[in-house]
Design a protein that fits this description.
heterodimer; A: 248 residues; alpha/beta; globular; B: 320 residues; Rossmann fold; seven-stranded parallel β-sheet; binds flavin-adenine dinucleotide; binds adenosine monophosphate
Amino acid sequence: MKILVCISHVPDTTSKINFTENDSKFDSNGVQYVINPYDEFALTRAMWFKEKQGATVTVVNVGTIATEPTLRKALAIGADDAIRVNTEATDGLSVAKELAEVVKNGGYNLVLAGKESIDYNGGMVPGMLAALLDYSFVNACIGLEVEGEKATISREIDGGKEILSSNLPLIIAGQKGLVEEKDLRIPNMRGIMMARKKPLNIVEPINSSAATEIASFEKQDAKSACKIVAADNVDELISLLHNEAKVI
Amino acid sequence: MSVLVFAETSEGKFKKSAFEVTSYGKKVAEQLSTNVVVLTINSNEPTLLYAYGAEKILNVSNDDLKIFNAKIVANIIKQAAEKESSQVVIIDSNTNGLYLASTVAVNLNAGYASNVVALPSETTPFTVKRKVFSNKAFSNTLITTDIKVIGLAKNSFGLVENSVSGTVEEFSPSIIESALASESIEQTTGKVTIADADIVVSGGRGLKGPENWGMIEELAEVLGAATACSKPVSDLGWRPHSEHVGQTGKPVASNLYIAVGISGAIQHLAGVNSSKVKVVINTDPEAPFFKAADYGIVGDAFEVVPKLIEKLKDFKANNA
Ligand SMILES: Cc1cc2nc3c(=O)[nH]c(=O)nc-3n(C[C@H](O)[C@H](O)[C@H](O)COP(=O)(O)OP(=O)(O)OC[C@H]3O[C@@H](n4cnc5c(N)ncnc54)[C@H](O)[C@@H]3O)c2cc1C
Ligand SMILES: Nc1ncnc2c1ncn2[C@@H]1O[C@H](COP(=O)(O)O)[C@@H](O)[C@H]1O
């Protein structure tokens, strides 16, 4: 099995969100970047296939040189090699087109991605990639087993789950459940040392045209202050929710 | 030209989001001086959409489509969009909507904006406002392709009544093959899901242990709400993973979100701050949740929640 794990490079979840250049660009000043949390689930599941079923695991990112530490981290967690498509990721469709080239050229038959990037919250790259390649695709994936050519996949549905089956090739967009939180890998010293010697290949982009463009950003409006109700006066809370907020 | 809306059904009944996307689609069609066409599959009562402005409804009746397959449905949407020369396609942000929208976009060579929260601010260039950075900000995004796909964020536009007399047309698209087969569906029946709920009652580590969730469930029951929890609560196994809400869990966009014993960490707030009204109950007046909430009680959940349940029961009895 040749596995490709798509890694998105995103600001840490605690980052303060600010914009520069007339609110047209994200201000990365002082921001710590990490592997997109959903992609960590995908990467950890990939490591399981590597260790238990002898799969090879390549990680890929479409991004500038700034994303390389994130790819190195994925290598330190245990991926065999990494690919960086050398272009700034600005639009879901063009990222998916770049990734489709990588999948075709590398002959990967299992592609693991996350259900969304926590920066631009697109939730679009994996589905687009699958559609471009005509691979089977499962979104919001919470379980994946592969025996030979046959995959059994669980996906989250509203109020439950669905079990699906498909032959490879397959693309999934994963989330918590794909592996347990406690099983997520963090790089150890040995992994970090080994990662330095693993290949990180730079591929030039095909420069497909974008379908969307960000014109500007806005922050959330400042919220009005919280109304505090005395603990012994829940009647007042009920009355506020009923008469003022009109939600009950 | 037209605006195409996909109105999702579950066992023949429209999901609430179906009325929201129809309301939204009608307004977008007005902006573009064109008509709205609503596509639906196996609806028992398609005419319910008239109330929200659906002038033309395409209803697909086909038992093979009773089990959802994203690839097949995306292809049906494409066929409908081609038949109706649709310029804009609108899809909801339920689990299935999120699953199929990116495929629809590729099928139609369209640009796709997900998590859209408002009507286009301009139609040339076509500009929509969407949530980014896990609800901490918005982006104004241009869609530059001829055909545009919009994923409408839940509860962001609301239902707008706009009664029209429309027509229902039976639509029989061809059904493509899919290599993906549904083996089984496990549904926890009878409970309101976080995705569908108007009200969500959520508990955090402040509740001390799983044995104390009885009052959370009771509060939810009185309100007809879904139950949810913070991440550590599901990590500790006090509650199922499916209840974990926040940046890395389920998003909540309900009308009312009640947080009990939850501190309000940035990752928690990121996932719930799309809820319209937020209430916090916490012993610590310095808990960050008070900065994000609309109403708060500084107090012990073990005293406040039982009182709240009792008073809400009275309130419900008097307002039934
Ligand atoms: C990468 C990453 C992703 C994350 N994603 C998420 C996510 O998606 N969702 C999420 O929830 N968290 C997430 N977290 C965790 C988050 O940072 C917090 O640790 C978590 O939200 C805290 O949960 P809590 O509020 O239940 O617990 P605590 O922070 O322990 O807060 C408990 C609160 O209960 C109050 N309390 C105590 N006793 C009582 C009482 N008797 N009555 C009333 N109040 C009481 C306390 O004052 C306190 O404010 C993430 C963290 C990381 C690093
Ligand atoms: N620039 C990128 N490079 C590699 N993978 C990506 C990139 N952007 C998104 N992905 C993958 O697609 C998933 C969904 O991302 P998005 O569609 O941006 O929300 C992520 O979890 C990644 O697995």
